[in-house]
């Protein structure tokens, strides 16, 4: 029952907003009593905390799937972007923005985990791209990684609408790639940008 509550609540939080969904709403949607929810969660914050952990795990499972398909480094970044679009396209408001605004402590905890994971993933992508001749061999991997994830996280936490965040993330990805790509990498980038506009 606990997993079902987390799953339903998380779905509602993402679609309707972390702030606006109440424990009554969740109980009503699940046709259970509020008392049943409180049996597992002492308050809404605990429920949101567990929900964000589930989102975190789901995102990383999907990211691992993309990586396992062995795209080249530039394609991999575009496939990640596509995966995020599919995951969040039904939401009007950016979940990260909402969480930061209404539940800053939970947001901070989640971001600490996310930033470390993303730093690792972005670094691996740059190493892969250098090996494939798509990124310049003299790229400062630490700085390039930091610039990119700072851009991406800043967009997500400061942009209200999900579609605006998605558009800006696309520009950040192009900016990041152009900054570190070889001529071969630029050709690959242009090919991927063209696929988006089709």
TrEMBL record:
SUPFAM superfamilies the record matches: Homeodomain-like (SSF46689), Tetracyclin repressor-like, C-terminal domain (SSF48498)
Record keywords: DNA-binding, Repressor, Transcription, Transcription regulation
UniProt entry tagged with the keyword Electron transport: no
Residue runs in coiled coils: none
Pfam families from the UniProt entry: TetR_N (PF00440)
DNA-binding region: 22-41
Domain of life: Bacteria
PROSITE patterns from the UniProt entry: HTH_TETR_2
Domain HTH tetR-type: 1-59
Designated name of the protein: TetR family transcriptional regulator
Organism: Flavobacterium palustre
């Amino acid at each position: 029952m606990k997993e079902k509550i987390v799953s339903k609540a998380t779905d509602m939080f993402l679609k309707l907003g972390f702030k606006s969904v109440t424990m009554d709403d969740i109980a009503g949607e699940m046709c259970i009593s509020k008392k049943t929810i409180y049996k597992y969660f002492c308050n809404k914050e605990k429920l949101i905390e567990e929900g964000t952990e589930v989102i975190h795990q789901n995102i990383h499972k999907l990211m691992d799937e993309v990586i396992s398909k062995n795209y080249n480094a530039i394609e991999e970044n575009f496939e990640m972007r596509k995966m995020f679009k599919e995951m969040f396209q039904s939401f009007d408001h950016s979940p990260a923005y909402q969480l930061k605004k209404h539940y800053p402590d939970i947001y901070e905890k989640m971001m600490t985990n996310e930033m470390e994971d993303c730093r690792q993933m972005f670094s691996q992508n740059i190493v892969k791209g250098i090996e494939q001749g798509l990124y310049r061999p003299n790229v400062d991997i630490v700085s390039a990684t930091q610039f990119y994830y700072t851009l991406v996280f800043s967009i997500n936490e400061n942009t209200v609408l999900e579609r605006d965040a998605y558009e800006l993330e696309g520009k950040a990805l192009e900016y990041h790639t152009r900054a570190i790509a070889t001529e071969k990498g630029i050709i690959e980038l242009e090919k991927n940008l063209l696929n988006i506009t089709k």
